[in-house]
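Methods — Computational structure assignment.
A single polypeptide chain was analysed. Its primary sequence is given first, followed by the predicted tertiary structure written as structure tokens.
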Amino acid sequence: MNSTGAEVADSRGRFSLDSTVPGAVSRGFDVFRHGWQTQVGDSFPLPTFSPATTGDFRVRSRVAKVRDVAITDLDSASVIRTAGTPYGYDDQVRLYVVRRGAWGLGGSPDRDEYTVSAGQFLLRHGPPLHFGAAPDTTVRILTLPSAVLEPRFRNRSIIESADSAEMRLLMAHTNMVHATVADLGAVGVHAAHSALIELAKAVTTGRFDAAEPGLRPTLTQAAKALADRYLADPELSPGMLARELNVSVRTLQRAFTTAGESVTSYIRDRRLAAARLALTAPSRRPTVGELAAHWQFSDSSHFIRAFKKRYGQTPAEYARSMETTGS
């Protein structure tokens, strides 16, 4: 992948806002609009907001863009209401996932009205609608290219429960995107975007299953990233990963099996790799007992056996070989 730094920067964006704090209300909407224009861009034009909203814009918000996907979280402490919808991006999909309160859309004479309550989502393809919410409403909005939909969903609006396994997995992945998008390189942007699209497809078609080959790599990738983050945590286990990703342990294990490994072996091998790296430290090297304890092996003997099986040497032999080679 030969993307330049400028291309990578243009393909991702991120900003956050908390205008509920004292002193931030008067400029809250201006800060939000500036962040949107500079970090998200013209491909996702903002609607016109009502004067009441712009004058009292008390929200906690975070927004992330990955290529042609935008993720917007809004937690309102004031009324939010639009006064007009933007033009130029009718051929997109919007997915509204309401966690608290109620989100209303529509209101014009020639369009239906929708109320999405907490625990529901609205999937809509077509021109954007007016929207509004009362205070204490929390919603996540995904704007996606229309390619995520099968033809039978085009120009339709669907309201369903948001408690499905595929929706929970999509929400877990969007959380990861929010946390990492600012640091992603070209490969990371591509992977994050592909996962968003595949998981959105699963939500729109309602066909998510542990046996579906197209989604197994996405789940495995998300689990590995999470495991790497918590590698030294004594609570790290297949069960913990499954809970964090809102899937069953069986589903997670099947996804790893497709890649020719198990969840447990991945965690063990990553811990052994980290321990081996520690043995090459130019300063004080940790003892075998310290390594075993830090990387959650039951005791030193267990760690030594696992290390030798993996690398063909005991930790002490490996450390001496590094000294001999000058590493």
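Note: Confidence is low (pLDDT under 50) at residues 207-212.
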